[in-house]
Amino acid sequence: MTIRMEDVYRQYKPLMFSLAYRMLGSVTEAEDSVQETFLALTQSDIEDIHHMKSYLCKAVTNRCLDTLKSARWKREQYVGEWLPEPLVDDSVSGDPLQAVIREESISYGLLVLLENLSPDERAVYVLRTALGYEYSAIAEMLNKSEAGCRKLYSRAQQKLNGAGDGLQVEAQPERSKRLVEQLIYAMSHADAHALVRLLSQDAVLITDGGGKTRAAIHPIRSDQRVVAFLTGVWRKWENNVSIQIRSINGQTGFVISGEGQPTRVINVVLNSREDRIERLYMMINPEKLKHFSL
């Protein structure tokens, strides 16, 4: 039976995007890597490719590794904190990107933690945990030894466990929805006491403005400082913005918009040991909000 390029694209694009997004933390870069991979595929005789999924995963992974290694300098020069681009679920869209969000719930907290890994560690971790590949297959994809891939995975786990101690990075929609609703209510009523009760004592708020709009350059640490920031910015927002609770990377977050345009996307990570918010990630960089729809 003849294999059609259109069928291959339709079948594998969502999976390839999921892989690239986990690798890069960028919607635009992930889409570019996937498109370049399929463009290169058109130059090949696909009838000769016997394991299409593995072939595409290898191609996308290596493109992502090249991107990560070349982007290191850019991220080191980035103004303020660099955060991954969040994915907001648009359930009415037929875009494969949206299918990835709904079906796989790529935890935003985990994406942030993945930034602690080297490119090779990240590739092994993603291929192993997200796609379920055996070490032998990963070794073939990355042109490394099986033992080397096992060591990379072990190092990745150690780094993630250390960086994410106490964080509930897996999606818990019902729990996060309740806490986000309470957070929005407390913010909109400038209720500092309620905000303190919602946050862990060592809560951290990180904003990403990329030097393109006003944002905190450094993380804001401790519940009291986070509360002071939130109540301060709300006084500037309250008459000019609207808030939508949305599914962001499979968890409940919210989008703040002004004049019909999204201006901030806020995601939360919960504490695994208490019913409080441990991290708030606020995306303000307009370049990273281009793909959002209200």
From TrEMBL:
Residues 110-160 form the RNA polymerase sigma factor 70 region 4 type domain. Residues 9-73 form the RNA polymerase sigma-70 region domain. InterPro entries: ECF_Sigma-70_Domain (IPR052704), NTF2-like_dom_sf (IPR032710), RNA_pol_sigma-70_dom (IPR014284), RNA_pol_sigma-70_ECF (IPR014303), RNA_pol_sigma70_r2 (IPR007627), RNA_pol_sigma70_r4_t2 (IPR013249), RNA_pol_sigma_r2 (IPR013325), RNA_pol_sigma_r3/r4-like (IPR013324). It holds the Pfam family Sigma70_r4_2. Interacts transiently with the RNA polymerase catalytic core formed by RpoA, RpoB, RpoC and RpoZ (2 alpha, 1 beta, 1 beta' and 1 omega subunit) to form the RNA polymerase holoenzyme that can initiate transcription. PANTHER family: ECF RNA POLYMERASE SIGMA FACTOR SIGJ (PTHR30173:SF36), SIGMA 19 FACTOR (PTHR30173). NCBIfam families: PRK09636.1 (NF007214), sigma70-ECF (TIGR02937), SigX4 (TIGR02957). This is RNA polymerase. It comes from Brevibacillus choshinensis.
